[in-house]
Write a structure and sequence with these properties.
Length: 317
């Protein structure tokens, strides 16, 4: 199916660049048969105003219809840019240079336009600064650019748990917003594994010329049972009873996992969910104070009781 879609786009671009092109010429260009081209044209007739004015006339668009195909890949742009240096310009028809300049100017303009759009989007996203740093560089733009271009980044990253800086090469897959922060999920070449990076901990980011392929990586599967961003190795099922005064607010929470919620006769809410990491979920529960009671697992309930006792001792109770 993918090959067919690509071929249909090739046909449309070929008709636009060479009005009157024949079925045989299209077949040669697409490395297929005339019969396949005829079948493809029946599909394209439904989505584009294409006409064939008779035998030997070939295909062309009707009216002012046009596609805008100048989303060159880097390789295509490079090949096109060196074209004049490998051609005998004395044998080129008049107007080639001006046409070539227009195409390249359009490509440069569109590249700049895409970058400006990306820059504006990155500028609209306001990110905080870690408390221990007054000034923090915002690497959101180059990371977004790398994700869109499927390019590996070379970065310097601060690992908080070890309080050290490391140089890494990362294939950036996805940006994930969590708790007023942005995280990058991607393949770390040094660890040879998928890792999660907090954007504010990058000290330097630059794009490389190396391209990557995500393969069969599935972000939904990767984040399954993850309450926020930290992923654990084992599943824990929680049962929390929320009192009536907060039940409606809990229902309104925008969550990344799918809980089971049961309304109880007294207006309270029974909340059941399975997650792979305890700490972040408990941080969320604690914000509801005494309006949230941990029913299960019993081990977490006992641990929380001990914590409450220590808090009581801290405040002289």
């Amino acid at each position: 199916m993918t090959d067919k879609v690509i071929r249909l786009f090739k046909i449309l671009l070929a008709i636009q660049s060479n009005p009157g092109i024949s079925a045989k010429e299209l077949a040669d260009k697409c490395e297929t048969t005339d019969r396949t081209i005829y079948r493809d044209m029946r599909i394209l007739d439904l989505i584009a105003p294409i006409t064939n004015e008779g035998y030997g006339k070939g295909y062309r668009f009707v009216g002012n219809f046009a596609m805008y195909p100048l989303n060159f890949t880097e390789q295509e742009a490079l090949v096109f840019s060196v074209l004049p240096s490998v051609l005998d310009t004395s044998k080129l028809p008049p107007g080639f240079e001006s046409a070539y300049d227009k195409v390249m100017a359009t490509h440069v303009k569109e590249t700049r336009k895409r970058y400006d759009t990306l820059e504006n989007v990155a500028g609209m996203i306001q990110m905080g600064t870690p408390a221990y740093r007054e000034n923090s560089a915002n690497f959101l733009l180059p990371i977004m650019e790398a994700i869109i271009a499927s390019k590996t980044i070379r970065a310097v990253y601060h690992t908080q748990s070890r309080n050290e800086l490391t140089e890494r090469e990362i294939d950036p897959y996805y940006l994930v917003p969590r708790d007023q922060r942005f995280y990058l999920i991607g393949y770390c070449h040094s660890k040879q594994d998928i890792r999660t990076f907090r954007i504010s901990r990058f000290r330097h980011v630059e794009l490389t010329s190396n391209r990557f392929d995500k393969g069969d990586f599935n972000i939904a599967q990767y984040m399954k049972h993850t309450w926020s961003i930290e992923r654990g190795d084992s599943l824990i099922t929680f049962m929390i009873k929320f009192q009536p005064d907060v039940a409606r607010y809990v229902k309104e929470e925008e969550l990344f996992v799918r809980p089971k919620m049961t309304d109880l006769p007294d207006g309270s809410l029974l909340f059941e969910v399975t997650v792979n990491h305890e700490r972040e979920f408990m941080n969320w529960v604690v914000q509801y104070g005494p309006s949230a009671e941990i029913l299960e697992p019993a081990s977490v309930r006992e641990k929380f009781k001990e914590q409450l006792q220590r808090w009581g001792q801290l405040y002289g109770q």
